[in-house]
Amino acid sequence: IIFARDRGICSLCHRPVARAEASRDHVIPLTKGGEESYRNIVLAHVSCNSRKHNRIVTQQMRLF
Fold first, then answer.
1. Residue 58: what pLDDT?
2. Beta strand residue intervals within the chain, DSSP E
């Protein structure tokens, strides 16, 4: 469902994600009070998600 909703595009680097490289990213990490819900989860590459770790990404912040 997340893959289809996000049209197969990584929310962090904005490039296409192969299903084998896909992971769920919590927009607001659980460790920072985020919830385990459809609203708080986006598609991301495993590698992008690993680099983000438990940070909150804002439009002003560029990780990549």
1. 65
2. 22-26, 41-45
